[in-house]
Amino acid sequence: MILVDVTFNSDEEIKKIEISGHANMADEGKDLVCAGCSTCFIGALNAIQDIDNFKVKVDKGLGFVEAKKNISNHDKIVLEVLLVQLKSIEYSYSQYLKINYIKEGTK
User: Fold this and answer.
1) What distance in Å separates the CA atoms of residue 62 and residue 60, rounded to the nearest whole number?
2) How far, in Å, CA of 62 to CA of 49, rounded?
3) Rounded Cα distance, 93 and 107, in Å
4) What is the secondary structure of the chain as a DSSP string?
5) Largest Cα–Cα distance in the chain?
6) CA 64 to CA 72: how far, in whole Å?
7) Residue 7: which residues within 8 A CB-CB, separation 6 or more?
8) Confidence of residue 106 (pLDDT cuts 50, 70, 90)
9) 2-103 architecture in CATH?
């Protein structure tokens, strides 16, 4: 299962999104859930305007993006769109993807 941890700051803005695991819906290279999550995540990273304001890690089975400081409205929207895309995948494939919502400082 793919686990997505979304951390919000005290202003209820997305601070961090971490994606880990594998859907195991199909064989490697044929897994639509993994491909969809990966595509959404990489697309969001490509859309971020000021990547230097973020801590980023991309590896097989792991995607991580965290705002290091205040970010632009554009980049806030990029993170919000990423979350909407992941929610859409979760809605259709909830047995393969789970999103956890975390308030900063509670995990």
Assistant:
1) 6
2) 22
3) 26
4) -EEEEEEE-TTS-EEEEEEES---SSSTT--HHHHHHHHHHHHHHHH-S-GGGEEEEEETTEEEEEESS---HHHHHHHHHHHHHHHHHHHH-TTTEEEEEEETT--
5) 41
6) 19
7) 14, 15, 16, 17, 18, 66, 102, 103, 104, 107
8) confident
9) 2-Layer Sandwich (3.30)
Structural domain boundaries of the chain? Answer: 2-103
- Residues 18 and 42: their CA atoms lie apart, in Å, by 13
The two structure tokens encoding residue 24 = 């195991």
Rg of the Cα atoms in the chain: 13
pLDDT digit string, tens, across residues 25-84: 998 889 999 999 999 999 999 999 999 999 999 998 889 999 998 899 999 999 999 999
Among residues 6, 10, 37, 8, the alpha carbon closest in space to that of 21 is found at 37
How far, in Å, CA of 88 to CA of 92, rounded? Answer: 7
pLDDT at 99: 98
